[in-house]
Every structure is written in C-alpha cells, then in structure tokens.
Design brief:
The complex is a heterodimer.
Chain A: H1 2-31, H2 35-40, E1 46-53, E2 61-69, E3 72-77, E4 87-90, E5 95-98, E6 100-105, H3 131-139, E7 142-147, E8 154-166, E9 172-185, H4 192-246, H5 251-261, H6 266-277, H7 279-297, H8 299-310, H9 314-327, H10 338-347, E10 352-357, H11 360-373, E11 377-381, H12 389-395, E12 399-401, H13 422-429, E13 433-435, H14 448-459, H15 463-475, E14 492-495, E15 506-511, E16 514-518
Helix pairs in contact in A: 4-10, 4-11, 5-8, 6-7, 7-8, 7-9, 8-9, 12-13, 13-14, 14-15
Chain B: H1 2-10, H2 32-47, E1 58-66, E2 72-81, E3 84-89, E4 102-113, E5 115-120, H3 150-157, E6 160-165, E7 173-176, E8 178-181, E9 215-217, E10 222-225, H4 240-255, H5 261-267, E11 273-277, H6 280-290, E12 297-301, H7 305-308, H8 312-315, E13 318-321, H9 330-333, H10 335-341, E14 346-348, H11 359-369, H12 374-380, H13 383-388, E15 406-409, E16 420-425, E17 428-432, H14 433-436
Parallel strand pairs in B: 1-4, 5-6, 10-11, 11-12, 12-13, 13-14
Antiparallel strand pairs in B: 1-2, 2-3, 4-15, 6-8, 7-10, 8-9, 15-16, 16-17
Helix pairs in contact in B: 4-5, 11-12
The chains are: A alpha/beta, B alpha/beta.
Amino acid sequence: MDHRLESGATLLHQTLKRFVRGVLIAAFALAFSSHAAEAQLLQRSLVLTDARIVTMAGPTLEKGSILVKGGRISEIGAKVDAPFLARHLKLAGKTVTPGFIDAWSSLGHTGSVGQSGPTGDVWDSFNRYARDDFRQALQQGVTTIYLAPGGPPGVGGRGVVVQLRPQSGGAAGAVLVEDAALSINIGSGQSPIKRLKTFKKVRADFRKALDYRQSLEDYEEDLKEYIEKLEERSKKKDEAGSDGDDQKNGDKKNGEKPAKDKPSPKPDEDKPDEGDGDALNSGSLWASFQPVKSGKNGDGGGKDKDDGNGKDSGDDKKSDDKDDEDEIKKPEKPSPDRTSEVLLRAIDRELTVRIEAHRTSDMLNALDLAEEFNLDIILEGATEAYLMADRLAEAEVPVILGRVTRSGVFVNDEYRRHSASNPAALTKAGVRWTVASGAADSQAARFVGLNAQVAAGRAGVDWMKTVTIDAARILGISRRAGRLARGMAADFVVWSGDPSDPGSIVEQVYIGGKLAYQAKGQ
Amino acid sequence: MMRGHIEKLKRPKIETSTYRNDCAYGLRLFDFSIFRRLVVVALLIGVGIGEVAAADTTVLVADRYVAPDGTIKSDILIVVANGRISRIVPEEPEGVDAKPGVVDHYPGAVVCPGLIDVRSAVGAYGSNQEEAFAIDPGASAIELVDRNHPVFRAAAVAGITSVLLMPGDGNLISGAAAVVKTVVVDGKGARRDSRTSSSRTSRSRSSGRRGVPGVVRDDGPLVFSLGQSPLRFDRAPTSRGGAVAMLRESLRKAKDGVGHQRLVDFVGGRLDGLVVCDEAMDVDAAVNLFGGMNLSLTLVFTGAASDVSAGLSDVFRATATGPYDYTMSPNALSHAAALAKSGNLVALVARAPGGAPDGLRVTAALAARYGLDASLARSAMTFSAARAVGVADRIGSIEQGKDADFVIFSDDPLRLDARVLAVYVDGVRVYSRELEETP
C-alpha cells in the first residue's frame, strides 16, 4: 500500500515536472519566435520511426527510422538516437520514399520563354502562386522539377531546377539550381525543310558565338597593342616635347614642308596657300582649326600638319596631343552579345545543353552539334532512340524520355515511330535514361511516377529508381536529392502503402525537413 | 485438328515457357507451391479421364488471377478446350476431365480476362456515320472493320482483346455498334503464336453473325447521341431542343411499331442501347427520354459525373467513362469514383486508337488513384465493360464456359509497371513477350 502510494506520488511528481518543463519550453519558444530564431533555434529535429523506407541509396529498410536535423537527414537506419525535444512521427505501416523528380517539366509554367532565346530565364515565367498545381504534384509525390523553357524550334532559354517548397505569402517554389541547362529544340512539329533551317540556324548561332569570342580576343589584343603604342607615343612625346622647346623657331618651316611634300587631299592643298597668304595674321587661328579638318579628310596629311602647327602655342599643343591618340586608332570594343555569351558558357561546358529531338536524323544532328562545339548534352524526348541506342550509348549521352504512352496513330512526325520498346532498348544498350512528364502540359507533371511505371515496366527496371536517383544524376543534383541517406536533404514522401499499389495515397510530403503537403483528414 | 494434335504431341509435355518477372517474382519459380502445381499438372496428364479434345486443350497455370468481381485471387489452373474455358481449378485437382496438350506456366504472374475497350474506333476506316440523316438505325459498325489495320495488333499486344466499335456518335441514332476481338483466331488476318500453327475451326457462338470468327456481336447495342455532336446547320436537328424532340418522336413511332426494326426492338426491350452524352444537361435529357421505359441502356459520359451520378443506375444498366489522361483535373479524374459511389456499374473506355493502346490501363490506374476501388477499376476494363455492352455471357471474366481470352500480366494490371507477358484469344496464344520482343 505504502509502496503504491509512494509510486503514485512519484508519478505525480514526474508529471508535474514534465508539465513545468513543457511550460518552460513553450515560454522559450514564444520568446524566440521571430523568423530567424524559428529557422535557427526552434527547428526541432524530426524523427520518423517504424516506417518502411525505400532509400534508393541501398537496400530498403523494412522497419527503419530517420532523424532529420536542420533540413537534412542526419541519421538513417534501423534505429536512430532521437535527441531531446525531437518531434516524433510514428509511421508504422507507411512507406517513405525520396521525393520524385520530374526531370522535364512545365509545372507552374505560364508561357514559353524560348522566344527570348538563350538570354531568357524560365524562372521569370514561373508562376509561384499556382498553388493548386503544386499541391496536386505533391499529392503524387513530386518534390522537385526541372522547369523547361519551352519555345519554338531553335536555341531557346535556360531552365532551372525548382523545389516545390512552400514559401512565405502563399507562394511556392525555390530555385535549387539556377541556370541548370540551355534548351535547344531541333525536333518538334516542323516540316522537313524547316527542320533543316532550324538546325542550320542553331549551328550558325554557335559559330557566331565562337566568332564573338574571337572578336573579343582580337579586341583584347588590339587594345594591348594600342596601349603599348600610346605609351610609346607618350614617351616619344616627352622626348619630343623637350626638343620642341628648343626648336621653337624652326617650327614654321618644318610644318610647311611635309604638307607640301606629301600628296594630300584638296583642302590640304588649299590651306597652305591661305596660310601663306596671311600666315602672320591668322596662322595660329587657322592652325587651331586645321587639324580637325585634316583629321577628317586624311590622317597622314593632318598628322604632319599638326606637328608643324601644334608647336605654335601651348593651347594648341593640348589639342594636338589628343589628336595624336586618335590617330593611333583606338580599337573598337565589340558590342556585347548576350546570346553568344550564354552559348560560350555552353561551349566551355559550364552549362549543360538539353536538346529536344525525337527522330533519328535530329538526334544524329544533336550528336554532331555536341561534337563540333564540345557540348555537354542531354537528349529530351528521343522517341526513336531505340533505333540508335548503341550510338547514344557510345556517345554517352543521357536521355530524358517524355510521355511513353502514345497511340502512334493521329500524331505528327515526331511520334510516328513511337515504340513501346524504347525504354527497354535504352536499358539494353546501357544508355543512362530517366522519364519525365515531357513538359507538354503543366498538369502532367503530377503523374511522372505513373509515366515512370509504364516506362520502367517495359524496360524491366525499378520505376522508382528512374524518377529519383536516375533523374537526380542526370540533373546533376544527386548530392542533394533522389536518395534518403545521411547528409542528403530531407525531401521525402510518406505513402499510405506501397507506392506501386494504385490504392496508396501520399499522406505527407517533407521538403528540406519541412512539411510541404498534408493529405486532408490526416 | 489432327495436324495440330500430332504437332503438339511432338512437344515436351510440360512447356518450358516460363515467364519471369525480373523484379520480384523470379525466385518464386522454386516455390513449393509451384511443385505442387506441377504435380497437379502431372495428374492431369497422367490420370485425366474423359478426354475432351485433347489436341486443342491448353492448361494455364498462374499464381494469381483477376476474379469476376475484380479482386486478385491466388492460385489458378485453367483448362482451355475448344477456345473456351472448360475448367477452372483454383486449388483442388480432383475431377479434372481434360487431358492437356500444352501447359503454360506463369509463375508470379496475374491472369486477367482480356481487356475490353467499350468505346473505340479501332480498325474503322473513313467516315463512319451517315451525314445526311440524323436518325440512322440501319447503319452497322461491323461493316466498317478493316481487319488488317495495324492498330488491332497494337491493341492486342497491350492486352485489349475485344473492342466495341461504334458507328460514330455524330447522329441522334447512329446505328448498331459491334463487339469484335482484336485478333481473329483462324480468320482472315489472324496472327498466331509460332507454336499454334494448327488450324482451328471457328465456333458458332456469336449472337450476331453466326460463325464469323472474331465477332462477339454485331447487332448492337444501338447507339444514340445527345449533346453537341449531332447538331448541324445543314440538316435537322440544329438545336438541342430539336434533337430531343426528334428523338422522342422516333421513339414514340417505334413504340407503335413504325420505323426501323432495330428501333422497334429497342423500345420493345429486345435490343440494348448505348447513349453518348457530353454534358450533365445531356444526361438529364437522356433520363427524361428513356427513363421509365425499362430499357437495357448504357450511358457513355465523359462530363462532370459528380453532378449527375445519383439516380443514374435507375435508368442505365452501366455508365462508361474515360479516357483519363495525365493532363486532366482531379475533379474529372474522380468521376469514375463518384459514379461507383452512387451505385452505378462503371466501365472505363480508352477510345483506341485515338488514345494510346495502354490508355485503358492508364485510365483505370488514374481512376484508382482518384478514389475508385481497385477491384472495381479492374472490373471496369473487364467484366463491368462486358456487362455494359451486353457480352458478359461470352467475355470479360474467367469463368467456366466463357471465351478463353486472357492477358497474362507480370503483376496487378492496375500497376502500370506490370507488363503484358502473353495474350490469349479463344485459347490461342496470340502474343508472347518472350517470343516476340524486338528491342
């Protein structure tokens, strides 16, 4: 009896203690609930337990836990050490997967920026308030997209990698990779003749960029030369200046002689006569006039003349010096060409080039373009890739497939030879590929998982791999997304069951460790 | 028949065409249950009594199958004879009276009834509707079929073994639809599996054209259309009101026995019908027109089903909806679920070949994602579809006596990563992934 009472008291004591602690924590939380503090101090660690975790980084954990700290996965395994104050999420029976990546998307895209060419940045046409669209995408497990610029055939704009993370003020979407790629479309609904022209234009654009680089280099060289000349001149001038002081008297004769000697344009011939006429009265006035005129008419004549007249007075000398500089012709800086500047970044392999091509002829052109300009390319679409899979493997070009369910009837040239065996052929040849929504429709981004199921089913590979790790690798974000592993961003999706099961729904989505989506009634 | 028999006798008794699902079920080949099944097969071969046309008999063995209610059940052994399902042995080997010629074994796979697309234009050429008259019950879709059209093959490979071919839906009454198989076994343009080069006599079971292979029915259902499509400026009707009035008049006359025989049969309840509606108001019009007539009528409706789904089951035997696409709104994708919730029998359509051949499965998968029960979704492309167009007595389910049309999927057909491993039509394997895959 006593013992029980005692234990009851202890329990009460403990409960009280807990309560007090809770109040203290709440007070602490209130005190620090400014924005910065919220991000820094109060982002509680999150612990997921008892979930089936499809890591994509190794074997699936049938009953695993994840510890999320500061937006990243700090621990993952069968059991993790939950820190004090951590928020617990018990997920028995649920499946946790990495967020899906739509590697070729137009989600939230308000219109094509391709029109503006390589200077266009697709982020400028991203509607950050397309909340419903984002919610629907999250509802299907999509957390990251590559936003494609789209646009008419030719060299288009630059795409970005966007995370569908909620932002303040009801907006969503944060840029994960700026300038992720330059988009080129050489195969989309064109007549055969237009196709030729388009590719010719694309190649010409790259050539022009190289020419632009050449002209910049030439300019740099010329400028260097010019500066050297100037320095030389000013050195000479210094010497000449000291000479001039000594020879002031002989100036007139020196000045006249060269002018007469050399064949100069008519006005020059006239001048000396006039000068002779009233050399004493108006000589200096005329001289101050003269260089301008002669400068315009002919460099050679003017130069000599200036030398002659320039030494008449201090005032004149100043203007003469200026003229000297003009005569060592200052190289003209090529006007800036922003388009070429972007293309040059592609040529320097600082910017990946994504080429949309569907037919074999277009894909071969894309490979040629890559070889000619040393481009780092990714093929988009690649409808007929199964016909040349070995060639693509040899060139080590990754492929991003679009929608893989097509009828093959009532379609344009690009899809006429669409084949269900495309993914299988790519896998067999060893081409790196992933499958995306295809940027045809903003709404389709949601179902990148379903599209991947179809494609991967045909290729006999794991569909989830294609839209997580494979897509991340091709987008160059595999160090951040696509896997659930230590140090990776905490982007994950909580499913009610196996994601392959059509009856499973997405219950929660976390991006960067923060809740981005919660199913109704959860 | 005889040739086939001899040919089959030459083959090893247990077919080694073992299909593997690379992902998950490959190892199950060595499961105990497989051995048990092999024992069953051996029993069938050895002890089998009362031999039923041994040469034409095929035995299909699989781990799972789609039951008529759409659920996936485990373990099945199907004996096929004469192009029909002669026996289903879920567990027990006793009483099997067929001696198999060929045994096809699909470990881990799911045997599904051949899929049915109940709104398609597969193989139809040219304009398939009369331009001059809005009421044309005499037209027949069966006359339009081009059996050599490659889309038939594309549909079959995707698992669609039967389609309802419509005579267009641009007239108030467009004529009789037809249900045809996508592969004609032993008819013109038939394609056969390399192993079944034997000839097969066609059976005379089709309710319409007797003895024509590949035709399930050619006498209907009679197709009606409401909405925008029958309205034209160069002939009546030119308005919705006019359309309803014309149709009502035709139905009234038919009740008096005046008009085309098909229409008379329809109002007399001897022929079923199918009414295509685009919008909720068209459905209302259809309910007003046909309600209370006690007809066998199916509604084909792609509009906002949630607006009208209640009460439809009183008038229509089934409602067909689809196709669904990745670009549709969540509201539209929930229509099938809304219809099912209100007690309607739901069939899904792919509108092949305008849509992709796998459009039917994509539609079902999307419907399931947006609230349609998975078993109903499976049934919506098989048994419910067959019921919706009046052919459930022959196709759409794995039941004794039905046509032996199967699709062997590597997994649940609603999982879009499940592959079609083989397709059987009338008991003949017409597609085999293993034999035909051309990467």
